[in-house]
Amino acid sequence: MTLLSIYRLLLVLHTVHRFGSMRLQCSREFCYFYDLTSNEDTFAYRYIPPNVDILTVENALMEHLDHSMLQGVPSFIDHVMVTNSYALRWVSVPKAVNSLMISTSSLQRIDIETNSTLSYLGIAVCNLVKVPITVQNAQMLEWLHITSCKLQGLNLASLCENGRLRVLNLMANKIRYVVNTSTRYCALYDTLASLTLSENLLTTVNMELFNVLGRMDSLHLQNNKIRALLGQLIHSMLAEVRLDGNKLKDVDLCEWVVPSLSIILLDRNNITMIPKCVKNITSVSMLTLRSNRLSTFTIESLAGMNALRELDISCNKLTTVTLSTEHFPADLEVINMDYNNLTALDLSFIPARSLEVRVSYNLISRFDVNATSRNVSQLSMYQNPIICAWHTPFLWGRDRCNQTDGSVLLVHNEHLRNACHN
Ligand SMILES: *[C@@H]1O[C@H](CO)[C@@H](O)[C@H](O)[C@H]1NC(C)=O
Ligand SMILES: *[C@@H]1O[C@H](CO)[C@@H](O)[C@H](O)[C@H]1NC(C)=O
Ligand SMILES: *[C@@H]1O[C@H](CO)[C@@H](O)[C@H](O)[C@H]1NC(C)=O
Ligand SMILES: *[C@@H]1O[C@H](CO)[C@@H](O)[C@H](O)[C@H]1NC(C)=O
Ligand SMILES: *[C@@H]1O[C@H](CO)[C@@H](O)[C@H](O)[C@H]1NC(C)=O
Ligand SMILES: *[C@@H]1O[C@H](CO)[C@@H](O)[C@H](O)[C@H]1NC(C)=O
Ligand SMILES: *[C@@H]1O[C@H](CO)[C@@H](O)[C@H](O)[C@H]1NC(C)=O
Ligand SMILES: *[C@@H]1O[C@H](CO)[C@@H](O)[C@H](O)[C@H]1NC(C)=O
């Protein structure tokens, strides 16, 4: 170590709680260590005050953050973060590290020591092309995020041994496939609760792959390029499936057996018909189909969905809807039909306890407020040739509506449809 670097590091002693141009800067709970260049610099770790529990290494200048550089981190540090280190390609993780985040680096390789105690590992913005093989050495791992990297696929077998992993988030990679080459039962199947593969390049997904993940309650597949869902999903725990922002045209749920499924998000697809057999999934409480291509809708297609509370079919191409029928989901609370092309609305018979109807930005010129069911507890019908609104169940009535000159609405509403694309 040069005299100069010793001098600089000793200065560190006096800069705790002080910000300046020093390489180790600490506040109450954090220390930042800038420009780590070599093993010798880790000498500075001894100046980290014992109340600090997060150490951030910013701008590590080497290609390989080797074993000894993390080994020397004081044991009272709970979280180590390595950020903005463009030279960094390879990190070796000693077994005593519990929580490690590596963000914005050129990471291509990470070696995790056998019997590692790592329980949180987050890697964001990197060059990894697959889930590192040494992740299987991290038997205590509960939480793994590899996001905004270059992963090309996911093989569930690569995490087979990770029998404590609960959260796996691989958002914003380049994943084109999900497979399973494992030939045996994996410990992972009994633990994984949440799987996120959003913002990738998936085009078809075999839903059967997920059947073995018995504890999974949320599956996030939004913002891919999915055109087809294959296979029979049979899953007793799954509560939430996100498929929004894909390229689905027809969705057929007839083969799904998902008795706990509560939320299905299908917004921003290319769907022309209510998903087949959706009404057989009677546990669903929220169904969203905003920004699709539905041209007609009848609530009868959802009859019997007695857990359904919220339905969103806004931003479609609806010209007709049928709501006044006895085949109605009995506990529906909100239906959103904003931004469609409806010209008439009949709410005369709505066998639901208390329904909020949103139908702004349409072209409704035929609506009989006098004949509206009292079960419609709230109505928002702005930007239509007839404007109506009430927000309290017992105060509604004929003075809640006004006729307007609807001539400008067509152009106007189309313009406002920008709201539909996010
Ligand atoms: C890992 O732990 C196992 C069981 O505790 C032990 O037998 C093995 O030697 C350890 N391996 C290393 C590399 O520490
Ligand atoms: C992976 O394949 C093996 C062998 O066919 C099977 O036992 C296991 O359940 C499969 N896992 C998944 C996630 O499909
Ligand atoms: C949706 O379908 C239409 C007509 O089939 C097609 O022209 C359009 O490109 C599709 N959009 C997407 C996002 O796939
Ligand atoms: C859907 O439910 C109906 C009525 O309960 C039943 O007759 C039909 O077989 C079910 N379809 C599927 C694919 O489960
Ligand atoms: C609504 O109707 C108008 C006029 O017929 C048409 O120009 C417009 O494209 C329609 N919008 C949608 C979303 O179908
Ligand atoms: C209001 O809803 C109840 C069930 O909650 C139903 O029996 C009744 O027929 C409905 N009335 C109208 C006018 O929609
Ligand atoms: C509603 O009923 C009132 C009288 O009860 C009547 O004056 C009004 O014109 C009716 N409105 C419509 C839209 O039929
Ligand atoms: C209808 O017009 C009346 C009188 O201008 C106004 O008080 C009321 O708020 C209007 N209703 C709606 C829904 O715009």
UniProtKB/TrEMBL annotation:
Signal peptide start-end: 1-18
Keyword set includes Signal: yes
Keywords: Leucine-rich repeat, Repeat, Signal
Gene3D superfamilies: Ribonuclease Inhibitor
A GO-annotated cellular component: extracellular space
Top-level taxon of the source organism: Eukaryota
Record-linked PANTHER family: AGAP008170-PA, INSULIN-LIKE GROWTH FACTOR-BINDING PROTEIN COMPLEX ACID LABILE SUBUNIT
Stated name of the protein: Leucine rich immune protein (Coil-less)
Organism: Anopheles epiroticus
